[in-house]
Design goal:
single chain; alpha+beta; Beta-Lactamase; Alpha-Beta Plaits; 5 domains; six-stranded antiparallel β-sheet; six-stranded mixed β-sheet
Amino acid sequence: MATDLSIENFGSMIDNVIAGICFFEYENGNFTPIYINEGFFRMLGYSRIQGMKYLERIDLSIIPEDLPTFYQAIEDVLKDDGVVDTEFRTVTGSGGLRWVHVRGNLYAREGKKYTIVSIIEDVTERKTVEEELKRQAERLHILSEAEGEKIIDYNVKTDVMTIRDTDEYGMAKDNILNKYLAKFDDKTIFEEDVAYYRAVLDGLMRSPKHDTIEFRIKRFDEDFTWYQINLTSLLGAEGYVTRIVGRMINIHERKMREMDLLLRAEKDALTGLYNQGATEQLIRSAIEGSSENDLSAMILIDLDNFKEANDLLGHANGDQLLEQTAGLLNDMFKGGDVIGRIGGDEFLVYMRNLNTISDADEMAGDIVKKVKYDLDFEGQPIHVTCSVGVAVYPYHGETYEALFEKADRAVYTVKANGKEGYRVYHAATTTIYHANRKVGYDMSKTLDYERNIEDQVMQILFEDRVLESALRSSIELMTAKYQFHRGYICGNDSLPISRTIQFSLKGYATGKESDEHYEMKRTVNEIFYAFFPSVTMIHDYDLVAEEMREYFRAEGIKSMLYYPLTSKGEFQGAIVFENHEDVQMELKKSEMEEIRSLFRLMEANILQIGLMDRLQNFVAQVAIFDNLDSYIYVVNPDTHEITFINKKVVMSSPDVKIGDICYKALQNRETPCENCILRNLDKADAHCRCTEEIFNFSLRSWTRSSASWLECREEGGLALINSFDISEYFMG
């Protein structure tokens, strides 16, 4: 690199700069050019002689409409701060028009003589694109206004709300509200809707997302009008939400019809919730008003042992339980959700505008925890709990009947597997469907069991925030895939799961596990381990020990697939699949290899085995990491060292290598990220998982990244980051 630069060389460089560099003297309204580089004349297509004439009467070469802008720029640059930044159109040497961007400042001042220096750039191409976008936006605005909509644009940084409407002549007009939230006027919104409206706005400002709300705006006559707003918050270059945009639609007539329906349809006299007819009609109406991007859930709640409590304790006490349950549901759900009592001890909720399926999953879990009553009848305990089934719109159906059927089947599954729990219909494949829908997979194939089951189970185990829920989904998926009659995981008290996780196909109910039954099952599995220390399929149980034969006969088992869980040579539990008919359990060689891989995968999660300790065997045989269509990184959170990357990362980011520091390799930073997702992993919770939307510099794309523990240790732990490219979805 040259260290000496002569004045001649420096001048030559300035002359060859594409942009114009100009020095002017300005006195009594007259411009005198002092220095103009060659780049200025080339940019506008003038020779130096022609260009100097152009500069002598520059006001004649500027489009008349832009002259006020030009004169204002001169006025600005003559002020004490002496800075100008403006754009206008001018005529080129060939007679065409070009947009120029002028940035300049006051260089010197002697009396009334001013010296101005400026840089001039040709921005015609950019302005052409902007004008086209503006025309497209105007066309979109005309279309939207033709449908009776208002356009909402809220600037979070300046706290300015702009509402674009049309007047009686169809002309656009803007209603600009300065300091909108700072001087928020809650009197313009119906009193009952204010808290809901503000909560949605606050949520949109915290992170980029979509939301839809229905609320009432008061008119001057103290009456109100129902509106629906579809809102989207946008991330600015600063890294936080800077804009909220959306459409506001008048839905007053539809809401009046709905309210008329409610007035005509009596509410449930006991609980005050909607009765069966009103609940069904409201859900149908909500489905009809949904778009293809909406996500909602039908949640069916059936009380367990209610009939027994009602018969023994009397109807008055039974009614009290129903009222208490209704109160709990009212407290848990927001105003836009539909809550009804559809039978003696059955409740139905339609939960609208979900962000993810896990919202419904978590809510169903909360219902199971809260709807639980421990009663007593003459010293005899009665436990009234609930079984909850969830069906998700639009994955499980786009009609009331389809969703209710799936929710009802999910409730049956819970009842068949011991009651007091919840189930998302086909939770395993629904989770995959939801994840794949966001990254553009072919949805017609997603719910097909023929899709690689190893990929599905791996994704479930990494994406589900609750280990036990993930294992239950995996057991369900394997049972359905290979047509086993019953599957379960039975472990001792040292495992981080309940004593038994089980699932059975319809007609093979397992019933509620008693302590005695659990101890018997665990004892038999320990005996199996003495004879079968590895994965084994048992067909003829007459060849096994007597204790096993008695267990097989008592349970109705005809054949069994058994996999022991061991840690440091000690038995910890077992994964078991059974058939209960005189049909041999037959598996192809390829299916048996799949199942062996799945057993190892589930064992690693159940026993919290560090995956890197057995990576050579695990990845080489199963190859799940490399088969996943997502970006997989294993990182030491203490040192930020990358210890594993999958094939997709290697193909997409060839510069990222094992041993790199994650924030350098993935984010091009010299220091750890301020909002590092790994910092959210709790070292006191081996099942801790967290998910965020992150821009991955090495991929040049937005990703939805989930972090979870592979080895949870105070020092030297390993975390797995599983990332999906959501750039198209995020930008949309």
